[in-house]
Amino acid sequence: MLGFCIGVITASLLSLFLPIVPPFFSIFFVMLVLLVFIRRWPQPILFLLGASCFLANWSWQYQQHQISQRTLLELAGSPVMVRIDATPLTYPDYTQLSATVLSGPASGYRLSLRWQQPPTLAAGQHWRLRLQLKKVHGFTNPGGFNAESFAYINGMAASGQVARGPHILLLQQYSVRQHVVDLVEQAIMPYRTAPLMKALAVGERDFSDGLWQGAQHSGLGHLLAISGLHIGLVFGWVIWLGGWSRGIIAIRRQQQLLLVLALAAALLYAWLASFAIPTLRASIALVILVICRSQLATIPLSRFWLMLVALLLLLQPFWALSASFWLSVLAVAIIFTALWRYPLTGYHRLARLKWFLSFHILLSLLMTLLGIIFFGGFSPLMLLSNLLFVPWCSLVAIPLLLVSLFLTVLGVDGSWLWQLTDMALKPLLWWLEYSAELPLWWPVARISGITVALMALLLLVLLVFIRKAVLLLLPLCLLLLTGSSVQSKNWHLHLLDSGQRQLVLLQHGRHALLYDQAPATATRDIAENQLQPVLRQLGIRQLDFVLFRQQRTERSRHWTLLKNYRTDQQSLARFSQQTAADSCRQLPAVYQDIRLDVLTPDGADSCIVRITIGPWRVLLPGKIDPVTERAFISQHADLEADVLILANNGSAAVNSLAMLQRVQPALALNAAAFMNGYQHPATAVQQRLALLRVPLLNTADYGAITIEFNDKNLRISSLRRQRLPFWLEKPAAIAETLATTR
């Protein structure tokens, strides 16, 4: 069985790098062939058999997902029966909800829906709705959310919106969990730590932007969501409390009964968190543990870990796409390795304290390396934050919270306990608010991340065979973490994947210029959800200049220029509230070592900028109309540029053949949303570019597009082509470099 489990894990890692999903029946045929030779070469065949079982299950579930997706997309407005899974999120313009399909070939798969002006919605309701659906397709930006992988992990087949009715409410189910959530909300309403208590009690994180940022900067995000740590704490506390009853109550098979009660308490806590994926994984692990202990079976920690990971991957192969899955199982592997190599030898208080500090430092350093591998950066505050608050919350705050929750559900007045819980969580709340104000996220380059991954693997191997290898860990980690945060000296231009708008970042080290062609009313939507993670991931600490379009009258907009905007001091959503009188004409002619030419024609309400970086020139026409385009062509003799970012998201009304011939670009870029209603970039524009043999890259296909400038060539990279897994739908390959032509 050992070889079988290793085969499953190896195949799961291999599946991330495969270009396509292999057909199910070919894998099934290979499994039958392997069974013929299992008696002759048992260990190698078991390894290959485990790998084949994973690949077959993965292929089968992938095909079922594709069939369900096609079925839903072919409905074209036909009514669908769905169940609302969780409490809908209400926004000013629409309501966001997650629903499960109840009938048809797609039964059991989930949908992400928007509903404008809906009736009263609640979790558990069954509806008959008319839907307009499309494939799940998210924005692909540095540090951003991978919507496609999330869809596979959570069984989400499509996204879309609720079309015009009629819509019929079929069933209004009573939700026990929602009743518990209402009781908790009522009990914690008077306290400042209410968001933390709600997150740790029922798994719903209604955090402000400041709390989210504080959780990221402090490295305590894992502590603020009900996960394996919390489920394990409940299980452990029940076992510990049950141990005190052994000398008082004598029951046959008391140990087995205690294990079952602890498991029931842990499952109940996981149910309160709606059996979110981390809690589900922890529940499966505890079930395996209880079965083994009830049968008095002793399994080595290494074999238990291999069996657990293999079982989880066989149950849900798409969990291999989740960074949190690998982070969780590797954290458990690190804990098991540390407990094996460095056991507690002394039992007096000083020895226990010394062992605890050493164990925690080792665990935090290795987890920091894992964080770099999976998230492309780390927080230097993580070690101190975990050292202070993981023990405090595990031993004090969370037990108080669970007792308060238990009494509230029973109908007992536990207000004094909620008050104690609030006092216990106030230091954590203060720490998160303080961390949110500090620029404490250090991104790493891709090459550095690969180096860190190899070094982390080497350290784990050394820890297994050489006990004193831990002495190398601290200086090596400091060296890697310090060197990985060094910024590149070259200029980078990032055209972000931001839908029907144009967000351009011109970056040099920790400073950048932001060009945003969207109207002011749309700035709030994008800045918090997409721009902040990008700036954090790219290591940008200050936007020296921010150019964005601001509303002046109902029909006229002007360009506003902001200067020296530090991204760590205030929310990016306040762009539209800035009272800056300067326009793009006040841009400096020279910014650091590059040149900025404002080419806006006389009398035009637009902002056309050409950027010269060494031998390269980039033209940003922005948001223009045909009159402005004609004036732009006639008033400027020299319009040549190597890179052109199409105007108006690639509209055919502009980007005329005359302008393209005057610019003579070697590369054209465009920002447009996936399956947008404007059909941008327009077919006519694509034909004009093809006539001039100019390649076109669109963010809807390639995700964020980055150009790195040096004296000899341009390095062009597409984030969607680089992102794992490789078998997800990829755009066509692009040339990595462009040679200097001028």
Automatic annotation (TrEMBL):
SUPFAM superfamilies: Metallo-hydrolase/oxidoreductase. It holds the Pfam family Competence. It is found in: Cell membrane. It comes from Arsukibacterium tuosuense. The lineage of its organism: Bacteria, Pseudomonadati, Pseudomonadota, Gammaproteobacteria, Chromatiales. Keywords: Cell membrane, Membrane, Transmembrane, Transmembrane helix. Residues 19-164 form the DUF4131 domain. One of its GO terms (cellular component) is plasma membrane. Residues 200-467 form the ComEC/Rec2-related protein domain. This is Competence protein ComEC.
